[in-house]
Each structure stands twice: as C-alpha cells, then as structure tokens.
Amino acid sequence: MHPEFEAVIGLEVHCQLSTDTKIFCGCRARMPDGTSIADVEVNSNTCPVCTGHPGTLPVLNGKVVEYAIKAGLATHCRINLHNVFSRKNYFYPDLPKGYQISQFDKPICEHGYLEIETKAGARKVEIQRIHMEEDAGKNVHMAGFSLVNLNRAGVPLIEIVSGPDMKTSEEAGAYLRGLHAIVTYLGICDGNMQDGNFRCDANVSVMPKGATQLGTRAEIKNVNSFRFVEKAIDYEIARQIEIVKSGGKIVQETRNYDSDKNITVSMRSKEEAHDYRYFPEPDLTPLNIDPALVEQIRATLPELPEQRRNRLIHELGLSVYDAGVLTGSKALVEFFEKGVGILVSAPSDSRNQMGGQAAAKQYAKSVANLMTGEVARLVNESGTEIGASKLTPTHIADVVRLVQAGLISSTAAKQVISTIWKTGDAVAVIVKSEGLEQVSDTSALEPVIDRVIAAFPGQAADFRGGKDKLLGFFVGQVMKEMGGKANPGMLGDLIKKKLTA
Amino acid sequence: MLPRNLNEKLSTEKFRTIREIHDAFDKKLLSPVELTRDYLAAAQASETGAYLLLCEERAMEQAKAADQVLAREGKVPRDRLPLLGIPLGIKDNLTMDGVRTTCGSKMLENYIPPYTATCVERLEKAGAVSLGKLSMDEFAMGGSNENSAFGPVKHPTHPDRVPGGSSGGSASAVGAGLCVGSLGSDTGGSIRLPASYCGVVGVKPTYGRISRYGLVAFASSLDQVGPLTRTVEDAALLMDVMSGFDPMDSTTVPMPATRSFQALQKPADLKGLRVGIPKEYFIGGLEPDVEKAIQTSLRWLESQGAKLVPISLPHTQYAVAIYYIVAVSEASSNLARFDGVRFGVRPKDITEVKDLTGFYEAVRNGFGAEVKRRIILGTFALSSGYAEAYYKRACQVRRQTKQDFDLAFQDVDVIVGPVSPTTAFKLGEKASDPLRMYLNDIFTIPANLVGLPSMSVPCGVDSKGLPIGFHLMTPLFQEDRMFSVGQAVFQGLGGGSGYGLAQGSNVGRL
User: Fold this and answer.
1) Which residues of B are annotated as catalytic?
2) CA Rg value for chain B
3) CA-CA 20 to 30 A from B212: which of A112, A231, B182, B486?
C-alpha cells in the first residue's frame, strides 16, 4: 500500500442458516440429503407464503432465532431480548413481496467482536450487529428476457456487520475465515461460498495516514471466495489511492468484483441508491426472547475455534501454528481428532502402551504433521473440503502407525496420502504396490554400509578424525544406494558403529 | 331461472335468520340445495352489482353435502355444523382456492389464488355455502364502493344511492337478501359504515380475533375480517365460527374462539350499564336526523336502566390524520407485490418499455386513482427525511389515542355514538371530493387505531327512510358484552320485531 494512505475496511457477511425450513413458511431451507436448494427443480420449493401471494402472512421459524443467538454468543455480542422485524422496501424481480422482512433498529445481537490473528499479531475486530432476515430469490438472465427462481426466497439469513475496523486485506481475510469457522463450528451455516451459503460485501475507503475523517466508501458486492475478497479489496484500495493522488474524488457507489479480470466495476451510484422506507413489520408481533432461552443456548454452545485451538496447544502439545491451521476448518480439525482418537484407542506397538496424555501427544504431533503438510496441500490444491476426498481418519492413523513402526519413511508417507486422496485404497495396499516399504533389517543394511565406507576411505578417515558432520554424508550415500527405503533412524546408529568399530 | 317462492320465502320473516333456516331444515320445509339455488338465482337476477362472481359449482357442491348431512342425521347438528347449508357471500379480498379474487382491481382481474383464507375455510368447515365474491372499493380503499374497477354497487333499497364502503357489496347483498350473511373487512370502518348505510348489522372484532390469513392486506395493523348479517345473533354465530388463534397468522391472539352466540341466549341486563358518550362525537356536523336517532337510542338505553356517562377522548381530532398516514404507509408496502412480475396485470405493450423502471411504471399505472393517491401518500410518509414527521409521529399519537380509551374504559363499560355523520349519499355525490369522503370515517377509525371490538347496529331511519347505524365499542376482547348490548339496542330500536330495519324497508323484494 502507498505509505501516505491507510485503508478502512468493513465487512457485511450474509450467512444462510442451515435450518430445515425457511424463515417464514414451511418450505425447505436445505434438502435433507445436503443438495443445495439452488439445484432443486426451478420454483418447486415454494408455497403461497414465500412466493408472496396476496393475503399470505409470515410466521417466524423459532430455529432461526436460536441460530442467530448462537452466532451472537459466539462473537461476544449482547443479545437483545426485545426484537422487532422491519420491512425493507424496494422493487426487484427476485423479491416477490416488494419488500424484504429484515431487522432495522432493533437487531437481535449487538456490540460483539471477533479475535483475529495476522502476521502483526492478535487483535479484536468489532462486530456492530447481527440481524435476521429472509433471502430473496434468484434472477436468471436469458437472451432477451429474464426468469425468476424463488426456491431460495425465504431461506433464513443472518447478516453480520463488522465495524469499519480493518486496515488490510489480510485482516479482512482473517476476519472472514474466523467468522466462517465460527458459523460452521456452531453448525448454523453450511458455509459453502460457491453455493452462496456464506456471502460477503466489503466496504472500502481510503484516507491520508493519521486522518480521523473517513474517506468516501465504495461497497464491493458478490465476492464468492476468501481469496477473491482479499484481491478485490487490494484492487479497490489501489484504485482509490490512485484517484485521490491524482486529485480526483471517490464516488459513493456499489461495485462488482470481476474475478476473471481481477478488477471492480461500478454497479450503481449513490444517486440511484434506494430509500428503503423501513418500518416495523405489522404482520409479525414483536419478538420477546426469554432470558432463560439465551442461557440454555449458551450452555449448549459447542467448542469454538478459539477454545479448540487452546486445547490442542495445551492438551495435545501442538504448536501454535499447527493448532491454528487445523482449527481454521471444522472439517479439518474433526478429521484430525478422529485420526488421533483411532491411534489412542488402538496403539500401534508396545512402545505406545504408555497410554494417556503422553501417547496422545505423540500421536497428535505425527498426525498434525501430516495434516498441516501433505493434507493441507491437497485440500488447497483441489479447492474442496477434506470431506470430499477419499481420505479417511483411519487412513491417516494407519500411515502414522507405519511411520512410527519404522516401516515407511516420512517421505513415503506423503506419497501414500497423495495416492489415497485419489483412490481411497488401503494404506498397506499402496505401500506394497508402490514399493514403499522401508528396510529396517540390519542384515540387509550392513552389507550396503560396508560397501559405502569402502568406497569413501578418505571421508571415513576424516570422520574418525573427529568430523562428526560427515555422518550425514554417509547416511545420504546409503539412502541413495537403497533408493530411499532405508530406515534413517537405524542407519545413523549402524554407520556410526561401523566407522568407529 | 326465476326462484320458486323466493320472494315469498324471503319477504316472510321465517327464513331470515340462521336459526329459522335451520328450524325449516329440521322440519323439512326447505333443503340446503333449494335454498342455495334460490339465492344463486336471486343474485344472478339482481341489479345491485353486489356480486363480482358467483361460484355456483362450489356452492351447489356444498349445498348437496349439506343435504346429505341432513338426510343422514335427520336434523341440523348445530354443535358440529352450526352453519350447515347457510348461503354466505364473501368480500372479494378474501381468497378461496381456485376462485378468482380481484379486490375490485384491474390489477388482479386474472388472479386465481391457490389457497383459501382461514376465515372462509372455517365457515365452510362449519357447513356454510359460499355463494360468490362480493364487490368492494379497489383494495378496500373507499367509503362508497364507487372505487371498484368493475363498477359501483347500488344501495339495496335506494338504487340511486351508495351502499357505503369499502365492503359495499357485502352490506348491499345482505340488505337485498342476496345472502344470509357476508364477510367484509374493516380497516377504518369498511364493515360498519356500509352496514349502517344499508341497515344491517356489521361487526369489526378485536384486532387479532379473526385470522387475516387470506385477506389481501390493505393496512395490516388495522385490517380485521368481520361478519355482516341481518341480526346480532347471526353475527355472533359467524364470529364464533371464524374467531380463535390461527397458526398461519402471528397477529391472532392465542385465545380460543368466542362463544358469543351462547352469551346472547340470556337476555341483556342494561341496569347499571355504564354507557360512555364521548363529547367529541357530538360537536356538530351530524345530520339532524342522525343526531335525533342517536339521542333517541341513548334515551332508550337510559329508560332501560343504563347510566349515561359523559366522557372525553381528546385525541379524536387527530384520528383521521393518524389513520391516513398509518394506513397509506402500510398500503404502499403491501401493494408493492403488484409489480407485474408475479402479480398484477402487464399492459399489452409491455415489450416496448426500455428498462426495469419503465416496466414498473407501465404496470403500476393499472391501479385506480384512489389507490395511486394512497400509494404515493404512503411512500412519502415513510420516506427518509419525512418518516419522523409523518409515520413515526402518527404512531406516537396512535398510542396516545389508545391511552384515551384505556382511561375512558376505567369509568364505562361501553362507548357509543353514531357510525357516520350522514346516511347513504347519492352515487357520484362525493366521488370528486376525497377529503369529504375521508371524514365519513371519523367515528369508526378510532376502533381500528386501538384494535377495539366495535359494531354497527340499525337504530332508526331518517326522513327519506335511509337507515341509521348505532355504534358500539367495548374494551379489547369484550365482544360478548358488545353483542349483548348490541342485541338489546337492536331489539329495542331496530324495529322491535328483532329483524332490524329489514321490516321497515323492502329488503328481500328483489
């Protein structure tokens, strides 16, 4: 970023709640088999209420309130017990009633925060409010005309609004990922950005460094991945600085992010902005929440990313880095804990009969190494969640057992995992078919070691003369001879013994 | 086909009330199919313009089912099917599955709802026969039924006059004997005003008593469905069937149905009844005949042992203003769905519009003048920069109006007055003067603003023979008391015979 400017970023996140039914009618909010509502036959998931038939009325789904409270409690918000729904009036073909039922001046949650971690350290980002509302349908544009699909109309949303609190795209990315982890941990949102379960609008402005008066902001809409949000923000900051530097003025407007070109494009300016004419929804009575319900929900909150990270560090002895990577995704950390669990309940050999905490720590380190290394790489590369692959926690446990027993090398372990990712074959089968078994048989190693020592008499003499570092050289030579399959741990001892004999 | 004996049947007192029809069913003097056929034929032949649509097939099916019940059970099972075989008319802003519902608007001239309003469903489950859909002012906006896109409705006995509105079809049909009872909706007086003009009983229940599910909304916080009938007893019976919590309408109160019919079976005791007379309702502007009829009614109440208590409702002067801000604000939002995408009629030349805004402009030109006027007013009252001064301020004064009534009801059991300053006026007389039209609602509006139960009961006629309505309001959920006092007034003043003005007019002479 330009050294004379600083950026101010605020994010509005829309989460589709994973309730069974829509917010104001009995239609499905998600299909029982996990299929996205978007993929169901067009306009089949509708009824007179969510299509806005004249005379129909909304009836609030209590689960939505419960889920919104969960989100509020997990982000340290105050839960407002007195709630009012309001109508947000605007015309658009995907909005069947001509207004969206939302919350305006009395949202369900206010004044929370989310702790984020960046290279600069940890800090809190303000969450101004969380409110409940209904999703709109979807316009489908054809050649010369448009159609409307209302399957999604009335799916419950919470909108989570941050303060204008972030200064870099890195912070925005960390905030978004943190929020995503929380809502998926809570089980209140499927969190699939491609399907629009988790959507983000970013408000971006720039001002001279140290200024107190915020610059005019642009709102970037419809960005559907973490990376794109970061890139869109970076582009927008650069664009605005360029304008200000060349003496221009930023226009308050809504901009679209074009991920193919990595630019933002103006959608509509403030003059075209809507006057939403909010007023209390007269078809719904004010919602008064029983404080006992809030406490009941608080008591049943699952372990959240922050708590889980601390537990992995303190109980399982993971590094801060490993714990951070693992807990960034609910799927990843659950996979990890299952893998460790399998190992603890069925130890691989007598060495691990020590049991309890110590065993768990030892296994945790090994599993974490594989997960944050090879598995994380595969997840990133494929762009899918770990659940979409053929890799299971049992596979990971099997691999760790072989490594700890000295039967395969850690390099071979990566290769095995990479193959399982695609094929789902059993670990033993892959080790055998790819010839990855490690040689730990002394009688097979000794002749090779003897040959190597004989081939490098000079180095052998130097080692004996005190050049300990040359041990690595000999290990490497033996490995080379054996195609990488020698057990490295055993090799060191054996060579040392031979050289000093 | 002309009805056999219909004139005779309806002009005699025998078959006017639900009770009497059921007695006739029991004695096999009449069958539901016969009765329904007669009413359908009468409606067909009528020139009042009360019906926009007759659903003959549905009605005859329901009548046949009623015949079968009678054949099976020998007599009317009044506890289970209290409305067996009773032909009713439904205001055209209440939905019936598969039956065109226009709300008196061109916008909905092709709209066929896929579901039935809760109140209609409950009536039909209780055995009622739905004859058809009754005319109304477009989207219930009006006080004379002259705002219907399908032509005005005539007064049942004075065809050059209006029946009142917006439930003009509902009142006229009952008054003309084109149904035993009807459903209307009341946002600022839309049941009580036409009931008063047409000399029938009209009830606006407590807000939340009857489900609004299936009532096409005008102003959601004010709208209530209610019955129009010839007698107070019939109105109570319809109320009992329709009322009670509905899971489809969150604004219905979690209370069981009323049992007002039962309550009416013991005679009203007016001794010691504290009757509130708001001074703000008698400050001039009343037609002399109306004032005289109301004063006569008050004297009669007094003669029966009631105590007349002068009260004050200081915010009365703001009621019309509050109403015309709150109602139009809500309406501007409620009517947004008629945008031509899913609902509302697109003009034929719609392909020539250049963009989405042009499309909306073209479509929404399909509203009538009064509806457009109110949408524009409501949009203004809610818009940023004006909402504070208009919508929010109106809501504040609305709360103060409620306090007026809370205070008043500490001292009185019922508050009474005229329904309207005038009797039915001539067609076209006020059509060009919306402000004068708005003032007709001055006595009825407060009950909607506060949510109170209220009703219009015929209490006399003016020098031209035009009916005058007596207005009663009781505290929230006190329908039983309202019906009881209403019944007494009705029997004491409405003609003595218990059949209201029907006797004095030519009701039933089709």
Assistant:
1) 91, 166, 190
2) 22
3) B486
Same domain, A412 and A496: no
Q: How far apart are CA A250 and CA A243, in angstroms?
A: 7
Domain boundary among A413, A433, A453: A433
The CA-based angle B356-B358-B360, given to 5 degrees, is 70
Chain B CB contacts of A277 below 8 Å: 332-333, 379, 382-384, 387
Structure-token pair, residue B48: 């009042």
Are residues A149 and A142 in contact, defined by beta-carbon separation less than 8 angstroms? no
Question: Is residue A241 one of the residues assigned to a domain?
Answer: yes
* CA–CA distance, B5 with A253 (Å, rounded to integer): 74
What ipTM was assigned to the predicted interfaces of this complex?
0.93
Cβ neighbors of B479 (< 8 A, separation 6 or more) are: B205, B206, B209, B239, B258, B260, B453
In a domain, B391, yes or no: no
Nearest-by-CA chain B residue for A87:
B333
Contacts with A120 (C-beta within 8 Å, 6 or more apart), sequence order: none
Domain final residue, candidates A433, A458, A486: A433
Q: Which residues does residue B90 pair with via DSSP β-bridges, in sequence order?
A: B133, B183
Q: Do A59 and A172 fall into the same domain?
A: yes
The verdict on residue A69 lying in a domain is yes
Taking residue B46's Cβ as centre, other Cβ atoms within 10 Å add up to: 18
Q: Is residue B380 part of a domain?
A: no
Q: Which of A50, A51, A53, A145 to mutate: most B Cβ within 10 Å?
A: A53
Our CA angle for B167, B115, B122, nearest 5°, is: 65
Q: Are residues A128 and A222 in the same domain?
A: yes
Interaxial angle between packed helices B232-242 and B18-26, expressed in degrees from 0 to 180 and rounded to the nearest 10: 80
Same domain, A342 and A489: no
Domain hosting residue B58, numbered range: 6-272+454-502
pTM for the model stands at 0.88
The whole domain housing A493 covers: 442-500
CA distance B138 to B152: 11
For chain A, what is the domain count?
Answer: 3
Classify residue B448: in a domain, yes or no. Answer: no
In a domain, residue A142? The reply is yes
Kindly state the tokens that stand for A241. 């600085």
- Residues A163 and A86 occupy one common structural domain: yes
B119–chain A Cβ distance below 8 A for any pair = no
A447, A389: one domain: no
Q: How many domains does chain B have?
A: 1
Residues A22 and A122 in one domain: yes
Let me know whether A112 and A260 are in one domain. Answer: yes
Question: In whole angstroms, what is the distance from residue B501 CA to residue A228 CA?
Answer: 76
Among B457, B445, B448, smallest CA distance to B495 is for B457
B359 within a domain of the structure (yes/no): no
Chain B residues lying within 8 Å of A271, measured CB to CB = none
Identify whether A295 is part of a domain: no
Residue-by-residue pLDDT tens, chain A, 501 positions: 678 899 999 999 999 999 999 999 999 999 888 778 878 999 999 999 999 999 999 999 999 999 999 999 999 999 999 999 999 999 999 999 999 999 999 899 999 999 998 888 889 999 999 999 999 999 999 988 889 999 999 999 999 999 999 999 999 999 999 999 999 999 999 998 888 899 999 999 999 988 888 899 999 987 888 989 999 999 999 999 999 999 889 989 899 998 888 989 888 776 666 899 999 999 999 999 999 999 999 999 998 988 898 899 998 889 888 888 888 888 889 999 999 988 888 765 544 455 567 778 888 888 998 888 888 888 878 777 787 788 889 888 888 888 887 778 777 888 888 888 888 888 888 887 777 777 777 887 888 888 888 888 888 888 888 888 888 888 888 888 877 777 777 788 888 888 887
Helix (H, G, I), strand (E, B) or coil at B289: helix
Q: Residue B458's domain is classified under what CATH number? A: 3.90.1300.10
